[in-house]
Write a structure and sequence with these properties.
It contains ten helices and ten strands. It is an alpha/beta fold. Bound molecules: pyridoxal-5'-phosphate.
Length: 340
């Protein structure tokens, strides 16, 4: 496939074994470091942006408009990519799309973490009130029309970069992994807008590797969205479509809701930090790693397991509370247990 491509990521990203986690779990656990894609603190979105920004540039765009939650890692990486190519970047955001009643003490900070970096890259962030995802998409379209009225040739990117091109980037990432390591029984990754899991599911079709997405959203219908995105990807790459059953999404680790830290996720963040010196995030990868730990313990997954790290650590700096959760007295010990 010869698609226009911007140069944004340092690929291949590293892969290595998690020796202490493997010893702890009694399984062979590896990690794919897409937290180290290299653009503006990294993350899975940089892979997608190589094709999305490549397409925008080849269409002659002068501005890019997208949308997301205020702590969007996608908008941060997009802002950096737009800076590199001299594109104007604007995004409609909400603190918490889709959640109605959340105690203020559980919310992530609205000015720390990612939005601080967005401002540094010059992203025009338009913060709207909390509401349903559909409202957020409508605000993004209004913003795109505003940019057009200003004379900008505006390229629209859906939330999280989950277009067929975004999924294609992860279809290729699957091949990257196959060149790096012997086959895995399981790949566990955080899932939200879906192009990461969809691309990987296509990439590992008929390979014996089971791709399991851990949802950050409490909506079981998202497997249908991934299936539909997969139909578009199959048309792009010219392979038969994967059936719905091939999109294995576990919604059991969301905790209190999208964009809200969970106790189990926070324990997993602390666990990996203290056992391996690796940072996860409270919205996506922490919950996904909590799932890996829990499902392995329950014997639901096993053998050779790969955790596909999707990044997100800047959100750690927006954690609620005056004291971060890892400073609690009982956790100051150097003895590492997940249950503590
Ligand atoms: C966006 C994101 C995900 C989810 O990836 P999708 O392709 O949107 O499903 C997971 N982890 C992190 C850190 C992210 O920023």
């Amino acid at each position: 496939m010869n698609l226009p491509r911007a140069s944004l990521a340092f690929l291949p990203t590293p892969i290595h074994r998690l020796d202490r986690v493997s010893e702890h779990l009694g399984h062979d656990v590896w990690i794919k470091r897409d937290d180290l894609t290299g653009l503006a603190l990294g993350g899975n979105k940089t892979r997608k942006l190589e094709y999305l920004v490549g397409d925008a540039l080849s269409s002659g765009a002068t501005a890019i408009v997208t949308c997301g939650a205020i702590q969007s890692n996608f908008i941060r990486q997009l802002g950096a990519a737009c800076a590199r190519y001299g594109l104007r970047c604007a995004a409609a955001v909400m603190d918490l799309p889709y959640e109605d009643e959340v105690p203020t003490g559980q919310r992530l900070g609205a000015s720390e973490g990612n939005p601080k970096l967005d401002a540094l890259f010059g992203v025009d962030l338009r913060v709207g009130p909390d509401g349903p995802w559909e409202e957020l998409y409508r605000q993004a379209e209004d913003l795109a029309q505003e940019m057009e009225a200003l004379g900008e040739k505006t390229y629209r990117i859906p939330i999280g970069g989950s277009s067929p091109l975004g999924a294609f980037a992860f279809y290729e990432a699957a091949q990257e992994l196959q060149r790096q390591a012997a086959p895995f029984d399981w790949i566990v990754t955080a899932s939200s807008s879906g192009s990461t899991q969809t691309g990987l599911a296509y990439g590992f079709r008929e390979s014996g590797t089971h791709v399991l997405g851990i949802s950050s959203d409490p909506e079981p219908e998202i497997a249908h969205d991934f299936h539909r995105l997969g139909l578009e990807l199959s048309a792009l790459i010219g392979v038969p479509p994967l059936p719905l059953e091939q999109f294995d999404v576990d919604c059991g680790f969301v905790g209190p809701g999208y964009g809200l830290p969970s106790d189990e996720g926070n324990r997993a963040i602390r666990f990996l930090a203290r056992l391996e010196g690796i940072l996860l995030d409270p919205v996506y990868s922490g919950k996904a790693f909590a799932a890996l730990l829990s499902l392995t313990r329950d014997g639901k997954i096993g053998g050779r397991i790969l955790f596909w790290h999707t990044g997100g650590a800047p959100t750690l700096f927006a954690m609620p509370g005056t004291q971060p959760f890892w400073f609690e007295k009982e956790h100051r010990t150097s003895t590492v247990t997940y249950e503590d």
